[in-house]
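We emphasize that the prediction below concerns an isolated chain of 143 residues; any contacts that depend on oligomerization or on bound cofactors are therefore not represented. The input was used exactly as deposited, without trimming of termini.
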Amino acid sequence: MPQIFVDGDDLLYIRNDDQIPQHPYWKVIMGLAVCVESILHPEPADDGLTDPRFFALLGHWDPDTPGEEEDLLALQMPNPLGSDGAVVEEVVQHLRNFLGEEEITDLIDHIMETNEKIDELEPGEEYTPFSEVTPEDIIGGKK
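Result of the prediction step, given as a token string:
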């Protein structure tokens, strides 16, 4: 299951093939760090611009497959949605160097859905995709 991590205006899209445990979330990031064999910057977009924040991480999730063609493990990129919610075409142009249209659409749809959830929050409330577990949840409220 792919995972998306956002830090400011940057986004890390990890195409995990489920060989690395999903929880806790940092296992995916640590697994990615171990499996990356090369980093690739895309060709300039049609307008000649290349954002230095956009790069592909290539390698193998399975360490027993060295020598085979490297797989696309992850992409770091600027957020493909602008602050106004519109798709940033320059980012999509770079995505087309690595992903098919269906995967790009799924990625952008997921980001839009997440942004909508964030927009629905009350002032001061923070969005977290994780459910919070209290000690009462674990022990059933008994001491």
